[in-house]
Specification:
This is Probable RNA 2'-phosphotransferase. The chain is α+β, with helices and mostly antiparallel strands. It is built from six helices and nine strands. The two termini are 35 Å apart. The mean pLDDT is 94. Bound molecules: ligand HQG. The site of ligand HQG has 19 residues, from strand 4 and helix 4. Ligand HQG binds next to strand 4 and helix 4.
Length: 186
Amino acid sequence: MVSKRHTRVSKFLSLILRHQPELVNLSLDEAGWVNVSQLLEGCRKAGVKITLEELKEIVRTNDKRRFSFTRDFKYIRANQGHSVEVQLGLQPTSPPITLFHGTAKHFLPSIFKEGLLKKKRHHVHLSDRRSAAVEVGKRHGFPIVLQIDAGKMEREGVDFYRTENGVWLVDHVPPKYICFPTDLTE
Ligand code: HQG
């Protein structure tokens, strides 16, 4: 069972390691890594005291494996979800034939027109599990799961990437590859 404190610290780490490292006076290297001692020191100065042991525990038990250490535990990075520029160094990987995207009902008219856009993130995030997509969709409103014809996209030359924690990334999903639910009246 992940404690409330762990969830809070994990959200703070996501903020630092994906979006605003400057909040604790750090910058990410090209691949998104930061030095662990400097991170802990920066957090301490910002009023968030985390020990190395606690950080290891948070990384190990995180529900979506959002963070990774280097083998020697000297550096840490977020596995995905950045808004700051980073090159995660992922290689294009063949996706399952079907992937899922969880969204909210009120976004559908615009997704119908433009397809899935990456918005503030570096990529559109897709999942190989419908259940995971439902949870992602709930964050934005009434959840809708869109089925994506990833096999066809790949055959037509689109690159897919898989993060360390199993999220599928793609640059854009044009509407023609999206299977929209037919009954949207309820
Ligand atoms: C929607 C979480 C209108 C898109 C999750 C989504 C995920 C459009 C929202 C990860 C659109 C962006 C990412 C269009 C896309 N018109 N709306 N043309 N194209 N959208 O949070 O996928 O907890 O940036 O459907 O588990 O919800 O952060 O992306 O609803 O893996 O680790 O615009 O975040 O992981 O929202 O979530 P987000 P997302 P973490």
